[in-house]
Amino acid sequence: VQLVESGGGLVQPGGSLRLSCAASGFTFSRTVMNWARQVPGKEREFVAGISDVGGSTNYADSVKGRFTISRDNAKNTVYLQMNNLNPEDTAVYYCRADVGGSYWGQGTQVTVSS
User: Fold this and answer.
1) pLDDT tens-place string over residues 18-27
2) Pairing between strand 67-72 and 77-82?
3) CA separation, residue 13 to residues 62, 67, 88, 113 (Å)
């Protein structure tokens, strides 16, 4: 199982970013995918999840209405569109695949600052 996140960076408050997670080594189209984030000194927290065919999504209360998770099973990729970002969204963002156990990517840094 390999998960590679990309798309992080520095953005001003109110801005947008789109994260991508390219997956390989398992049957992506049959796997629930999730995004989580972590700030130094704090536990990793759930951000968003999407069912295997994308018909069901769920979000942490803190990002509802601002973030959108989606997937392209033909490209083995899951996305996280993040709009109206604020400094509290600053974190390392990880994607997770639940394939037997839980597998994580290396993460991508998102920094929201003016």
Assistant:
1) 999 999 999 9
2) antiparallel
3) 15, 14, 10, 6
